[in-house]
Design a protein that fits this description.
Blueprint lengths: L1 H22 L7 H4 L2 H18 L5 H11 L21 H5 L8 H38 L12 H36 L4 H43 L3 E5 L5 H7 L3 E3 L5 E2 L5 E2 L11 E5 L5
Antiparallel strand pairs: 1-2, 1-5, 3-4
This protein binds zinc ion.
Length: 298
């Protein structure tokens, strides 16, 4: 029967894809690499929890009271005068310009930045080297016409990558943390929630960072380190092409996957912000990978 033949072909194809996935080197989706996200996630959870615990809740009145007062929010109760003061809600950008973000909030965040940065650098270094080892192993079995470099792990590139990546990451994380807190303050002012509720809302925001945001950053950074090692080692072992292999793709990743095989050095893919990229991830939590391809010499 046609249908059953078709079905069995699909099953076969599905099996085949699983096999390919299992043997893709430096694949974020592979079980052994997925495990690499866990220590990163734990470091980040500890970091956000530390911020949560160190936050000066008892001073929240002194810190944000002036903003709440000058921006027209009511610091007492959620009275019945809600309709009387429209149009005085500060934007997060306005709130970001206020003093508390330098001191004490900025100081608080800076105090722990260096620590998380050096931890994450160590983690990314390890992930990059793991991906590198998988690529080199793959190269041993697939590229026969080229000597495989025998210089041990590519330490210098690993350090350079992890160092630069984490410096940028931590700066972005600090900004994002401040933006999130500014939004909580802004929302609390808009809703005329008063200072006690503001403290509670800040705690809730930190606890969301501890849970969801830690996981997001850990996944994205693991994928990034693996894919960078894919690119660097591909150059070393003479891989000439690549193919974007999707997992749970969004529309952007689907389009990347549909490009088929492309030369290694090209950047024909798009990230979700419209930039052109040479490798995944295309967005936070992206699980896509690259497959190495040997292009026919023209
Ligand atoms: Zn993706």
């Amino acid at each position: 029967m046609v249908t059953s033949l078709k079905e069995s072909l699909w099953v076969e194809l599905d099996e085949l894809l699983k096999v390919i996935e299992a043997f893709l080197p430096a694949n974020p989706q592979a079980a052994e690499n997925d495990k690499l996200t866990k220590p990163v996630e734990k470091d980040l959870r500890d970091y956000f929890r530390t911020l949560e615990q160190a936050f000066p809740y008892s001073d929240v009145l002194a810190i944000f009271g002036p903003i709440v007062a000058t921006q027209g929010g009511q610091t007492e109760s959620r009275g019945s005068h809600k309709a009387e003061k429209p149009g005085s809600i500060p934007s997060p950008a306005t709130i970001m310009e206020a003093d508390p973000w330098d001191e004490p909030i900025g100081l608080l965040i800076n105090a722990f930045s260096k620590q998380i940065q050096s931890r994450l650098t160590g983690r990314l270094l390890n992930i990059y080297l793991t991906g590198s080892a998988q690529m080199i192993e793959w190269g041993r079995t697939k590229t026969t016409d080229r000597p495989i470099f025998n210089e041990g792990p590519p330490m210098r590139q690993a350090f350079e990558y992890a160092d630069a990546r984490c410096a940028r990451l931590v700066t972005q994380m600090d900004t994002e943390t401040k933006n999130r807190l500014a939004k909580v303050v802004g929302d609390s002012i808009r809703d005329k929630e008063g200072i006690p509720n503001l403290a509670r809302n800040i705690r809730n925001e930190f606890s969301d960072m501890t849970k969801y945001r830690s996981e997001t950053i850990a996944r994205t950074e693991t994928a990034d380190a693996l894919e960078q090692s894919f690119m660097d080692r591909s150059h070393d072992i003479g891989v000439t092409g690549k193919r974007w292999i999707t997992t749970d793709p969004c529309d952007v990743c689907m389009a990347n996957g549909n490009l088929g095989t492309v030369p290694l050095d090209e950047a024909p893919y798009m990230d979700v912000w419209g930039g052109s990229i040479e490798r995944p991830p295309a967005h936070p939590r992206c699980r896509c990978a690259l497959a190495p391809v040997m292009l026919e010499e023209g």
